[in-house]
Amino acid sequence: MNPLLLTDGYKVDHRRQYPNGTTLVYSNWTPRKSRIAGVDEVVFFGLQYFIKKYIMHDFEQYFFKRPKEEVLAKYARRINTYLGENQVGTKHIAALHDLGYIPMVFKALPEGSSVSARVPMFTMYNTLPEFFWLTNYFETLLSAVVWMPCTSATIAKQYRAILDRYAAETSSAPDFVSWQGHDFSMRGMAGIEAALVSAAGHLLSFNGTDTIPAIDFLEEYYNADADKELIGGSVSATEHSVMCMGTDLGEYETFKRLITDISPRASCLSSQTPGTCGVC
């Protein structure tokens, strides 16, 4: 799909609605407030993914590398069937296609940092005056992509703080906290992308995850390397179907087989040196 169609419908005609002579739109992404008492910071995460995935990859593959006539025809058809009679036009779309890149600058705080409410996480603006309309055109797509990883990373950080506090009071192995806040985003989110960005945000505070592709996500978009560092891990756990297959008559044999034949030696959760994960 043409990435320019990944937007709210009301955005497409703002180019004509801005005051005549507009040449620059400078916008910011700012967490407005928290609805949770005592939590007034949001973890910033997801912009680098947005830039690499959508600005660099999707626009290149599905916009700039597609024939201009095809892009314009599909854009015009969708807007016309959506709005009916309109004067949105396609000249600005053609000009962007001719340009061959997205003329935008993003300025951001370091990802992974906690940002106070009402403080901008990043700003963006157009670098060519004729593309002033492009800046806020991206607001919709940015909101759809960046909100989830920021939210999941923020929630995970709060869980981590609670677990760390009680581990300090009650545990002799506080490093085990890294594995206590386990992630199951692949079965808990509304779609694959939501699962990936949520699980990746969770991994900023924990090591435990059952969302395998979150590791690939962090390697591809955030330069992580599972060969050199622990990104995420889990254990070879069973499930209801496994444990019930032997029926109640074979329950003892099921446990005995799993312990003595399948997993006679527990695997260390750390992909690094055994004993460093705080479990074994």
Report on the structure:
The protein contains 10 helices and 5 strands, in the order αββαααβββαααααα. The protein has a domain at 151-234. The protein has a 3-stranded antiparallel β-sheet. The chain is mainly alpha-helical. α6 (139-170) crosses α7 (192-202). The protein is 43% helix and 7% strand.
Morphology call: elongated
Query: Mean pLDDT score, rounded?
Result: 92
N-to-C CA distance: 49 Å
| Widest β-sheet, arrangement of strands | 1-5-3
Helix content: 40-55%
Computed Rg: 24 Å
Give the SSE layout:
Layout: H1 14-17, E1 26-29, E2 41-43, H2 47-64, H3 68-83, H4 91-99, E3 104-108, E4 114-116, E5 122-126, H5 134-137, H6 139-170, H7 192-202, H8 213-222, H9 240-244, H10 251-262
Antiparallel strand pairs: 1-5, 2-4, 3-5
Helix pairs in contact: 6-7, 7-8
